[in-house]
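Researcher: Going back to the complex we discussed earlier. I've cleaned up the inputs and rechecked each line, so this should be the final set. Can you rerun the prediction on the complete assembly and write out the structure?
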Amino acid sequence: MYDESNYKIEAKAYSASDTSVSPAEEPEQELYHSKSWWTTYVFSQDAKYIGIQYICAATAIALVGLILSVLMRVQLAYPELNVLDPTTYYQSLTMHGMIMVIFFLTALFLGGFGNLLIPLMIGARDMVFPYVNMMSFWVFVLSLLVLMASYLVPGGPTGAGWTLYPPQSITSGTPGNLWGLILMLVSVVLFIVGFTMGGLNYVITVLQSRTRGMTLMRMPLSVWGIFVATIIALLAFPALFVGGLMLLLDAVLGTSFYMPAIIATSNLGKDLSTGGGSPILFQHLFWFFGHPEVYIVALPAFGIVSDLFSVHARKNIFGYRMMVWSIIAIAVLSFIVWAHHMYVAGMTPWFGFFFASTTLMIAIPTGIKMYNWLLTLWRGNIRFTVPMLFALGFFITFLNGGLTGMFMGNVGTDIALSDTYFVVAHFHFTIGIAPVLVVFGAIYHWFPLMTGRMLNEGLGKLHFWITFIGAYMIYFPMHYQGLQGVPRRYFEMYDSVHATSSGLNEFITIITIVVAVAQLLFFYNVINSALSGKKAKRNPWNANSLEWQTPEMPPKHGNWGREQPRVYRWAYDYGVPGADKDYIPQNLSSKDIGKANVEKT
Amino acid sequence: MNVALVVVLFFLVIVGTVAFHFFAWDTGWWFSPLASNWSSIDNAIIITFWVTGFVFVVLSLFLVYCLWKYRYQRNRRSEYKPEDKKLETILVVVSAVAVAVLLAPGLSVWNNYIKVPKDAVTVEVLAYQWGWNYRLPGEDGVLGKTNIRNISDDNPYGLYLNDPYGKDDLIVQDADLHLQLDVNVKFLLRSIDVLHNFYVPEFRAKMDMVPGLVTYYWITPTKTGEYEVLCAELCGIAHYAMIGIISVDEEENYFNWLDQQMSFEQILAQNKIENKIIQLVEKKK
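Model: Rerun complete. Updated structure for the full complex:
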């Protein structure tokens, strides 16, 4: 029961002439308005600001991950420099993995672009629970602080690898096996708590707060990608949560969820007082989260890149409905493939047949997406803007990474390649470089929305070519190291016959340094353009989706001024025959578009 | 001009990818020479290379074609065609067929990998932080039972002292393992501390060793020589140094080596004598 007079803004009366847009189901509610500097800029409850806060925090932690990777590469190619010892090498490897997968990419796509884009793209004024949204970000910051604090505790951060497999993560042969591990697990648990607050917000906002006329099948694919990825994350993170909590109990209280009867090196021949636990149980819990995690990162990237292709090729996305259904199919399949990370982990051999079959099936919906991106470019009118270049770089990188997935996902071929550099190359292409290229493309694309200014195009292009070709030259040769049998996670290979001679390691390391340094171009561009870049005109890319149709650029608090937009079509009416311009924004009604021959969407 | 450069650069990335593949193959950045029966793994990988390579080249060249052919022109509009059901159906069917073609050899390899031939001889591999121990079944062909709680300095494998099958087990501790050419071997894989993985690149085979479980795989060595054993599962700070040697011998050399190995019973007896000598020496002092 509610009293309608409590609402300051009343629902607009449904006008009978406007048959294509359904009436508002609920009257609008008054927004939260901040009253002080602190609540406007620090503890902001405006999704746009929270999105930018997430992007900045995630990028900052990514720099830590990047520096660690450069140190590891220098160690691998030039061991005589002794930049790392085995302890710091394994700690760097662990922190790099966890930071990049969870604290950088997950936070950036869902927290960053989710907050920035969802309300604007669906025509909402904000997320449905702004306070919880603010809390989500600050719990994320807390998780970052706890993670970084592991450099300050005795023993340093954990060096167990980002997979944290017990018993090794707990026993004394691993660096940071007590305090480092505890802080890592607490930090991950905090991240999940923070993410859940944000995640519920994104899902409910998409389901409940779409503006009038914005049916689910008219939503831009960016929103679809982030929406479905959030649902996956809400279902997958609990597995990591309980898995991590049980590991924490094993480490701190000596429970034995994962610890079988073993002999620890420190006890010299004496067995530990554990017994009966299963190390493989942890792996199942970890990968039940871990594989969906790949799609938590990939689906928002798929969605965003679809929009970049469509806008910058001035063409409708090809097969929109198939694109949506393939996102959903990938999401469903992602929950029944996890054990393909465990073919040679000692689990029941019969699982191999099942998980190889489900895994390779993912190639079908993923293939559909690849074809549809190509067919979007086909007969398009392609502009080589910086976002388009990054989208194209993503396509080549992900095509390559997706295809090497056919080696890893297939149980017979994985026997030889598992735990080698082939894996390192494969996953860096798919969930490393490919999503990062999308992140850059998205930032170049939506920078005007965030700041009202354009990024410098020349610098952007230079940044693109160094990053794309450089990253490609780093990871493509690694597949061949893997074929030779070079195992991953080796601090040094000495003069092993499998150590890659002929300078390949040195080559990869030098390119890594070049690519890492080239990121300064990007940061310079962002800072310089935010302060004094070219002012963006309204809707600078001539795009259709709602985020560009706000009354002000960048949009103000509440996004839409007096009245929320109404939506009459999908976001992809580009190049419609008979239309005045080559694009028709979603909020133009059939009366506004003259004789344009649009298909009903 | 600018557009042409972009298209050429993307084209070069694709040409470079294919060129590097053949360059790597030519230079020897490729499989280590096979020394086991698992040529089917190599073949499955090579089939996958051909199928995925074909898909890569076709899709990426089509991309480059589109980039050039449909580059921006002010007075042109893109085609407006939201869907094409027929084309989409064809592409789904083609992808499904390709997946089936790739899946078949992979599943067939796995089926052979998990089914050990009946005549395979058993070798136990016992991994620890950080090294490899081996145990062969001795003349009765049966390995004695073990339990991690029995492990002591005298009994590093944790054998039951009263198990008759264990007494003749040959103990190869902290030394190289020898295998006989062309004889099927089933490795029983154990670990006494953390996860490890028994991996010999030339054999192509690997499997994790999990404390609390006995895992396995089998191979037939097909080429004499010495091969490195690498641990392929992160097992702590000296993971990278956990390297051993396996030597594949002709029959005669293999049995020469086998004759030099001590059985568990002999080791126990020797330890007893040594202990007695130590006690005597200490008494004299």
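Model: Worth noting: Confidence is low (pLDDT under 50) at residues 1-17 of chain A.
Researcher: Good, that matches what I expected from the previous run.
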